[in-house]
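During the reporting period the student researcher (J.K.) took over the structure-prediction task from the postdoctoral fellow and processed the backlog of single-chain submissions. One of the processed entries is reproduced below for the supervisory committee.
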Amino acid sequence: MAKRAHVKRQIKYPGEQETTNFRDQRRGKDSKPRAKRRPFEEDSNIVEINARSNQVATAYLPHRDKTPLQAQTAAQQSYINAIKSHALTFGIGPAGTGKSYCAGALAAEALESGRIERIILTRPAVEAGEKLGFLPGEVEDKYAVYIDAFRDILNERLGRGVVDYCLRHGRIVGAPMAYMRGKTFGSNTFVILDEAQNTTPAQMKMFLTRIGEDAKVVINGDIKQSDIYGRNGLEDAISKLSGIPGVHIHSFERCDIVRSGLVRHILDRYEPDI
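J.K. obtained the following structure tokens:
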């Protein structure tokens, strides 16, 4: 009985076979049985080109620094104290001394604490030795490339989500110098003008006359790295405004560079007589 039952299971009815063949023909398939695929054999020479590490696939989020701003040098501490106690502060000196970082961090702390309601970031739209041509997008998109450095500072101090929210709602504004005429910096505003050595004397005069009562304004730059011809607005303003009450001019030296020791050595080779 067991052998006959086994035979019955092996036998297929003619109608069943014809139905199967007709179905395969309608689908355009070969009625021959398919060959079984061989199991994948691991080979050390085979590389999956779409493979991604978890670190690369994860979006980069800068680490937020919640600690209060701490000066790394005595010059930075004097610069921080000057910003806190003066309406207008000039920070001049070589690259890597922390001029932009200290100003951006103090502005972030003031916004987070509620002492101010708006941060205005501006700088002249001057390329360093090359022309980028017309940039796509609206005015804000075109100007965004000029304030990326400050956005990184604010992301570190406030968090990326807070910065994006403030940018959408006008709490943080990147304003080109060309659109400053007619504006007034009020008492609830912290204004930072970076790369001021690329302003003309006329631009600097226009910017300085925007300052209202109790506004906080910081102007940074390196006179020796100007990308414009002739006398620049930063150098002209320092010579004219020295000694005015409420105005402080802070000078950084090459020994105050904190970016890296390599930057200090590079400047020694490019500027050996200074």
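The committee noted the following: The two ends are 109 Å apart (CA to CA).
J.K. will present the remaining backlog at the next meeting.
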